[in-house]
Structure prediction request, 288 residues.
Amino acid sequence: MVEVLPQHVVLAFVISFAIVFVIILSVHLIVKHLKHGRLRDIIRDNEGYPSLALFQFSAWTAIIAFFYLVVYLIRVFGDVLEIPPAIPSNLLTLMGISVAVPVVSGGISAVKYRTKERPDKPHSFSTMLEEDDKPTLTRFQMFIWTWIGIAIYFFIFLAMLTKHGALQAVENLYLPDIDPTLVILMGISQGAYIGGKLIPSQAMEITRIVPQKATAEQTISLFGVNFGEVKDTIWFCFNDIAQRVTDIESWTNTRIDLKVPTGLKAGNYSIRVAKGERITPAKMFTVT
Prediction:
Protein backbone atom coordinates (compact mmCIF):
# COMPACT_ATOMS: atom_id res chain seq x y z
CA MET A 1 0.00 0.00 0.00
CA VAL A 2 1.29 3.49 -0.94
CA GLU A 3 0.57 6.63 1.05
CA VAL A 4 -1.74 8.93 -0.88
CA LEU A 5 -0.59 12.55 -1.14
CA PRO A 6 -2.94 15.57 -1.09
CA GLN A 7 -2.24 16.20 -4.76
CA HIS A 8 -3.52 12.69 -5.49
CA VAL A 9 -6.80 13.61 -3.80
CA VAL A 10 -7.06 16.74 -5.95
CA LEU A 11 -6.33 14.63 -9.03
CA ALA A 12 -9.05 12.15 -8.03
CA PHE A 13 -11.55 15.01 -7.81
CA VAL A 14 -10.48 16.38 -11.20
CA ILE A 15 -10.62 13.00 -12.94
CA SER A 16 -14.02 12.18 -11.38
CA PHE A 17 -15.40 15.54 -12.45
CA ALA A 18 -14.06 15.02 -15.98
CA ILE A 19 -15.60 11.54 -16.19
CA VAL A 20 -18.99 12.71 -14.93
CA PHE A 21 -18.85 15.70 -17.29
CA VAL A 22 -18.06 13.49 -20.29
CA ILE A 23 -20.91 11.13 -19.35
CA ILE A 24 -23.38 14.01 -19.01
CA LEU A 25 -22.18 15.57 -22.28
CA SER A 26 -22.51 12.23 -24.08
CA VAL A 27 -26.04 11.75 -22.80
CA HIS A 28 -26.89 15.29 -23.87
CA LEU A 29 -25.62 14.68 -27.41
CA ILE A 30 -27.48 11.37 -27.66
CA VAL A 31 -30.74 12.92 -26.45
CA LYS A 32 -30.29 15.88 -28.78
CA HIS A 33 -29.59 13.62 -31.75
CA LEU A 34 -32.25 10.97 -31.17
CA LYS A 35 -35.02 12.91 -29.44
CA HIS A 36 -34.28 16.47 -30.61
CA GLY A 37 -34.37 17.52 -26.97
CA ARG A 38 -32.00 18.77 -24.30
CA LEU A 39 -30.40 17.16 -21.28
CA ARG A 40 -32.44 19.28 -18.87
CA ASP A 41 -35.56 17.57 -20.25
CA ILE A 42 -34.56 14.61 -18.06
CA ILE A 43 -36.13 16.41 -15.11
CA ARG A 44 -39.41 17.05 -16.96
CA ASP A 45 -42.40 14.80 -16.40
CA ASN A 46 -44.34 12.97 -19.10
CA GLU A 47 -46.38 16.11 -19.81
CA GLY A 48 -43.24 18.20 -20.31
CA TYR A 49 -43.40 20.15 -17.06
CA PRO A 50 -40.29 20.55 -14.84
CA SER A 51 -40.53 18.09 -11.94
CA LEU A 52 -39.09 18.95 -8.52
CA ALA A 53 -39.10 15.26 -7.58
CA LEU A 54 -37.07 14.31 -10.67
CA PHE A 55 -34.69 17.21 -10.01
CA GLN A 56 -34.09 16.01 -6.46
CA PHE A 57 -33.55 12.43 -7.61
CA SER A 58 -31.15 13.46 -10.39
CA ALA A 59 -29.13 15.72 -8.09
CA TRP A 60 -28.57 13.04 -5.43
CA THR A 61 -27.79 10.39 -8.05
CA ALA A 62 -25.09 12.59 -9.59
CA ILE A 63 -23.58 13.56 -6.21
CA ILE A 64 -23.39 10.00 -4.85
CA ALA A 65 -21.97 8.65 -8.12
CA PHE A 66 -19.34 11.42 -8.16
CA PHE A 67 -18.17 10.87 -4.57
CA TYR A 68 -18.15 7.09 -5.00
CA LEU A 69 -15.82 7.53 -7.98
CA VAL A 70 -13.58 9.89 -5.99
CA VAL A 71 -13.25 7.34 -3.19
CA TYR A 72 -12.37 4.58 -5.65
CA LEU A 73 -9.69 6.65 -7.41
CA ILE A 74 -8.08 7.66 -4.10
CA ARG A 75 -7.92 3.97 -3.16
CA VAL A 76 -6.36 3.18 -6.54
CA PHE A 77 -3.67 5.84 -6.00
CA GLY A 78 -2.87 3.98 -2.77
CA ASP A 79 -2.55 0.64 -4.65
CA VAL A 80 -5.87 -0.61 -3.27
CA LEU A 81 -7.73 -1.89 -6.32
CA GLU A 82 -10.75 -3.37 -4.60
CA ILE A 83 -13.95 -1.36 -4.97
CA PRO A 84 -15.13 0.53 -1.86
CA PRO A 85 -17.53 -1.17 0.57
CA ALA A 86 -21.26 -1.09 -0.10
CA ILE A 87 -23.11 2.22 -0.06
CA PRO A 88 -24.18 3.02 3.54
CA SER A 89 -27.72 2.29 4.63
CA ASN A 90 -28.88 5.88 5.20
CA LEU A 91 -27.73 6.86 1.72
CA LEU A 92 -29.58 3.88 0.27
CA THR A 93 -32.69 4.95 2.20
CA LEU A 94 -32.37 8.47 0.82
CA MET A 95 -31.96 7.12 -2.71
CA GLY A 96 -34.96 4.84 -2.22
CA ILE A 97 -37.10 7.79 -1.14
CA SER A 98 -35.80 9.79 -4.09
CA VAL A 99 -36.85 7.01 -6.47
CA ALA A 100 -40.28 6.53 -4.90
CA VAL A 101 -41.29 10.20 -4.81
CA PRO A 102 -41.10 10.81 -8.61
CA VAL A 103 -43.12 7.62 -9.21
CA VAL A 104 -45.84 8.59 -6.74
CA SER A 105 -45.75 12.24 -7.83
CA GLY A 106 -46.07 11.29 -11.50
CA GLY A 107 -49.09 9.13 -10.75
CA ILE A 108 -50.79 11.92 -8.81
CA SER A 109 -50.07 14.45 -11.58
CA ALA A 110 -51.44 12.09 -14.24
CA VAL A 111 -54.76 11.97 -12.39
CA LYS A 112 -54.86 15.53 -11.10
CA TYR A 113 -53.99 17.23 -14.38
CA ARG A 114 -55.26 14.75 -16.91
CA THR A 115 -57.00 16.21 -19.91
CA LYS A 116 -57.90 14.98 -23.38
CA GLU A 117 -56.03 17.83 -25.00
CA ARG A 118 -52.82 19.56 -24.02
CA PRO A 119 -51.94 22.11 -26.71
CA ASP A 120 -49.15 23.92 -24.89
CA LYS A 121 -46.35 23.13 -22.41
CA PRO A 122 -44.58 25.76 -20.31
CA HIS A 123 -40.80 25.93 -20.47
CA SER A 124 -39.94 27.88 -17.32
CA PHE A 125 -38.21 25.84 -14.62
CA SER A 126 -39.60 28.20 -11.99
CA THR A 127 -42.81 26.14 -12.19
CA MET A 128 -41.01 23.47 -10.14
CA LEU A 129 -41.74 25.65 -7.12
CA GLU A 130 -45.41 26.22 -7.99
CA GLU A 131 -48.61 24.30 -7.41
CA ASP A 132 -51.79 25.47 -9.14
CA ASP A 133 -49.92 28.45 -10.65
CA LYS A 134 -48.59 29.84 -7.38
CA PRO A 135 -45.45 29.26 -5.28
CA THR A 136 -45.99 26.83 -2.41
CA LEU A 137 -44.14 26.33 0.85
CA THR A 138 -44.04 22.53 0.48
CA ARG A 139 -42.12 22.78 -2.80
CA PHE A 140 -39.74 25.45 -1.47
CA GLN A 141 -39.11 23.28 1.58
CA MET A 142 -38.19 20.25 -0.52
CA PHE A 143 -36.02 22.36 -2.84
CA ILE A 144 -34.15 23.98 0.05
CA TRP A 145 -33.61 20.73 1.97
CA THR A 146 -32.25 19.10 -1.18
CA TRP A 147 -29.49 21.71 -1.46
CA ILE A 148 -28.85 21.79 2.28
CA GLY A 149 -28.50 17.98 2.29
CA ILE A 150 -26.05 18.06 -0.61
CA ALA A 151 -23.98 20.81 1.04
CA ILE A 152 -23.84 18.97 4.37
CA TYR A 153 -22.83 15.72 2.67
CA PHE A 154 -20.05 17.54 0.80
CA PHE A 155 -18.57 18.77 4.09
CA ILE A 156 -18.94 15.30 5.65
CA PHE A 157 -16.97 13.89 2.73
CA LEU A 158 -14.22 16.52 3.07
CA ALA A 159 -14.02 15.90 6.82
CA MET A 160 -13.46 12.20 6.15
CA LEU A 161 -10.58 12.91 3.76
CA THR A 162 -8.89 15.44 6.05
CA LYS A 163 -9.16 13.26 9.15
CA HIS A 164 -5.77 12.40 10.65
CA GLY A 165 -4.35 9.25 9.09
CA ALA A 166 -7.08 8.92 6.45
CA LEU A 167 -4.64 9.09 3.53
CA GLN A 168 -2.23 6.68 5.19
CA ALA A 169 -4.87 3.93 5.39
CA VAL A 170 -6.84 4.33 2.16
CA GLU A 171 -8.05 0.74 2.38
CA ASN A 172 -10.41 2.05 5.08
CA LEU A 173 -11.80 4.82 2.87
CA TYR A 174 -15.45 4.41 2.00
CA LEU A 175 -18.44 6.48 0.98
CA PRO A 176 -19.48 8.20 4.23
CA ASP A 177 -23.00 7.77 5.52
CA ILE A 178 -25.38 10.67 5.98
CA ASP A 179 -26.87 11.57 9.33
CA PRO A 180 -30.24 9.83 9.87
CA THR A 181 -31.72 13.12 11.10
CA LEU A 182 -31.13 14.62 7.67
CA VAL A 183 -32.73 11.60 6.03
CA ILE A 184 -35.80 12.09 8.26
CA LEU A 185 -35.96 15.80 7.38
CA MET A 186 -35.67 14.98 3.68
CA GLY A 187 -38.40 12.38 4.06
CA ILE A 188 -40.68 14.87 5.83
CA SER A 189 -40.12 17.50 3.13
CA GLN A 190 -40.86 14.98 0.39
CA GLY A 191 -43.95 13.80 2.25
CA ALA A 192 -45.14 17.41 2.46
CA TYR A 193 -44.46 17.78 -1.26
CA ILE A 194 -46.61 14.74 -2.07
CA GLY A 195 -49.29 15.97 0.32
CA GLY A 196 -49.34 19.32 -1.44
CA LYS A 197 -49.97 17.62 -4.77
CA LEU A 198 -52.88 15.69 -3.27
CA ILE A 199 -54.77 18.90 -2.46
CA PRO A 200 -57.46 19.23 -5.13
CA SER A 201 -56.99 21.95 -7.71
CA GLN A 202 -59.49 24.77 -7.75
CA ALA A 203 -61.65 24.23 -10.84
CA MET A 204 -61.18 26.58 -13.78
CA GLU A 205 -64.07 26.80 -16.22
CA ILE A 206 -65.56 28.83 -19.07
CA THR A 207 -69.23 29.33 -18.17
CA ARG A 208 -70.36 31.32 -21.23
CA ILE A 209 -69.10 33.09 -24.35
CA VAL A 210 -70.51 36.44 -25.52
CA PRO A 211 -71.38 36.60 -28.35
CA GLN A 212 -71.81 32.89 -29.12
CA LYS A 213 -71.10 33.50 -32.82
CA ALA A 214 -68.57 35.88 -34.37
CA THR A 215 -66.31 36.44 -37.36
CA ALA A 216 -62.52 36.38 -37.42
CA GLU A 217 -60.91 39.41 -35.71
CA GLN A 218 -64.14 40.21 -33.87
CA THR A 219 -63.86 40.76 -30.10
CA ILE A 220 -65.57 38.21 -27.86
CA SER A 221 -65.68 37.74 -24.09
CA LEU A 222 -65.13 34.55 -22.12
CA PHE A 223 -66.86 34.53 -18.74
CA GLY A 224 -65.91 31.95 -16.13
CA VAL A 225 -64.14 31.22 -12.86
CA ASN A 226 -60.54 30.99 -11.63
CA PHE A 227 -58.79 32.28 -14.77
CA GLY A 228 -56.28 34.07 -12.54
CA GLU A 229 -55.05 37.62 -13.06
CA VAL A 230 -52.08 36.84 -15.34
CA LYS A 231 -52.44 36.15 -19.06
CA ASP A 232 -51.71 32.64 -20.26
CA THR A 233 -52.95 30.67 -23.28
CA ILE A 234 -56.26 30.33 -25.16
CA TRP A 235 -56.88 27.82 -27.95
CA PHE A 236 -59.45 27.50 -30.73
CA CYS A 237 -59.63 23.79 -31.60
CA PHE A 238 -61.21 22.17 -34.64
CA ASN A 239 -60.78 18.38 -34.94
CA ASP A 240 -57.01 17.84 -34.42
CA ILE A 241 -56.02 21.40 -35.29
CA ALA A 242 -55.42 23.94 -32.51
CA GLN A 243 -54.80 27.65 -33.11
CA ARG A 244 -53.46 29.85 -30.36
CA VAL A 245 -54.97 33.25 -29.62
CA THR A 246 -52.38 36.01 -29.97
CA ASP A 247 -54.59 39.07 -29.43
CA ILE A 248 -55.87 39.08 -25.82
CA GLU A 249 -57.25 42.49 -24.91
CA SER A 250 -57.85 41.93 -21.18
CA TRP A 251 -57.62 39.09 -18.65
CA THR A 252 -59.18 38.95 -15.18
CA ASN A 253 -60.09 36.11 -12.86
CA THR A 254 -63.64 35.94 -14.24
CA ARG A 255 -63.50 37.50 -17.71
CA ILE A 256 -61.22 37.41 -20.75
CA ASP A 257 -61.68 39.69 -23.77
CA LEU A 258 -60.00 38.54 -26.98
CA LYS A 259 -60.16 38.72 -30.73
CA VAL A 260 -61.09 35.66 -32.77
CA PRO A 261 -57.88 34.55 -34.55
CA THR A 262 -57.41 35.58 -38.15
CA GLY A 263 -57.78 32.93 -40.81
CA LEU A 264 -60.24 30.66 -39.05
CA LYS A 265 -62.70 29.06 -41.43
CA ALA A 266 -66.40 29.13 -40.67
CA GLY A 267 -67.45 26.28 -38.40
CA ASN A 268 -67.83 25.11 -34.82
CA TYR A 269 -64.76 25.34 -32.59
CA SER A 270 -64.01 24.31 -29.03
CA ILE A 271 -62.33 26.98 -26.91
CA ARG A 272 -60.03 26.10 -24.03
CA VAL A 273 -58.15 28.28 -21.55
CA ALA A 274 -54.79 26.90 -20.37
CA LYS A 275 -53.27 28.09 -17.11
CA GLY A 276 -50.02 26.43 -16.10
CA GLU A 277 -50.83 22.75 -15.63
CA ARG A 278 -54.60 23.30 -15.75
CA ILE A 279 -56.89 23.55 -18.74
CA THR A 280 -60.61 24.22 -18.90
CA PRO A 281 -63.19 21.85 -20.36
CA ALA A 282 -64.03 22.74 -23.95
CA LYS A 283 -66.69 25.38 -24.63
CA MET A 284 -68.23 25.39 -28.10
CA PHE A 285 -68.13 28.52 -30.26
CA THR A 286 -69.14 29.23 -33.85
CA VAL A 287 -67.03 31.18 -36.35
CA THR A 288 -69.23 32.70 -39.04
Q: What stands out?
A: The chain has two domains: 6-198, 205-287. The chain is about 45% helix and 20% strand.
